[in-house]
């Protein structure tokens, strides 16, 4: 299984996908596993895992410390994601070298379906027994939702930076449980500030309705500054 040529291809794929980060010394993911996750080949992935009983997928990492679930989310392979979270739910909250969990990646990409799969809602899909109160999937999703990456951003920050309204609203549905609206990232951006900057009025109203939120923005700005700047622009 340890083909040096295939392993080098994996290293090159990772470095090209993420050029700003240097490669690190963890690269023990089988290239066949990587390719199965990337291509969405559930049968191939299952056969690889079944042929290696006792495999700990939390330790099968690419050079950028991505797990199989990170790869499946990145390439939007929903069937692989479903299989992974059913058998290895702890992968949902495992960060890569940037501190991104698979949920950060799904939110940043604006993939509503994958975001819903990775977050702890009991009503995501009717009859889906994998998403229930007390289930490991729900618990791992709740952990990932509260996690900050190397930029100090939680998954909702990532959705708002890219103006993904539906993803942000879905994740904000868990606000009462997790107190996420108070989070401010390392750039000094609160959720309310990012929502106002993106012009997402529905998200702004949802955050205000929560009642316990930060208004902070970078360089001392706040959502009111954003509103004034935009009104001047529109008036001109």
UniProtKB/TrEMBL annotation:
A Pfam family it matches: Ank_2
ANK repeat feature ranges: 98-118
PROSITE patterns in UniProt: ANK_REP_REGION, ANK_REPEAT
Keywords: ANK repeat
Coiled coil (residue ranges): none
Keyword Kinase tagged: no
Cross-referenced Gene3D superfamilies: Ankyrin repeat-containing domain
PANTHER family: NO MECHANORECEPTOR POTENTIAL C, ISOFORM D-RELATED, PROTEIN ACCELERATED CELL DEATH 6-LIKE
The protein's name in its UniProt record: Protein ACCELERATED CELL DEATH 6
Organism for this UniProt entry: Cinnamomum micranthum f. kanehirae
Lineage: Eukaryota, Viridiplantae, Streptophyta, Embryophyta, Tracheophyta
